[in-house]
């Protein structure tokens, strides 16, 4: 088993190579599809049909945006948590999707990247739904871990023989310090997810926005103590801004 790291539009992409096939640990962004396909055919010298499974850990643009287009090009199956397909449903969900696409462009601009085509359908219809502790179909050494908090449907993926773990957005880096991601929609669940990862004690940790980490040196207790106590997302941020505006107006009258 080899884990290949590709630099994506705004995230790290991890492509697992096994003799039986290729596994994409996350659906990347739509802007990354050609890069993944080129890497498979030119660098690995394998046919696109060798990509047999794409896991979508959660529905944000840099984790789900490329999944369906990659499926069309390779024939791979898409797997996600059952709740992923409901994340962007309804008016509130569609609004959140627009905001998340705009935030992706904002992050790309800060990284010096041009605006790319990253639009994707906000409702995913996976071929396979994944439950906690399940083994990945066709890749039995990989186990699914349900690690919500960033969203209500986040998944992490553990390679049992080597204890290497992909955590998607569970941990990010700001000013070279490990910290909680934005958003944290469910703070209590987020802290429980960190505690679970600490208990597993992975040998190596792969994150979408941090270079691979030696699991022995991650201070999970510090991350849990610094994590937000209240939800930190678009809706709560907007509500707090509105509250501050009206609060200032009330004090002026």
Automatic annotation (TrEMBL):
Superkingdom of the source species: Bacteria
SMART domains linked: Lactamase_B (SM00849)
Metallo-beta-lactamase domain ranges (all copies): 10-209
Gene3D superfamilies hit by this protein: Ribonuclease Z/Hydroxyacylglutathione hydrolase-like (3.60.15.10)
InterPro entries, alphabetized: Metallo-B-lactamas (IPR001279), NDM-1-like (IPR050855), RibonucZ/Hydroxyglut_hydro (IPR036866)
Pfam families: Lactamase_B (PF00753)
Name of the featured protein: MBL fold metallo-hydrolase
Organism field: Alteromonas gilva
Lineage: Bacteria, Pseudomonadati, Pseudomonadota, Gammaproteobacteria, Alteromonadales
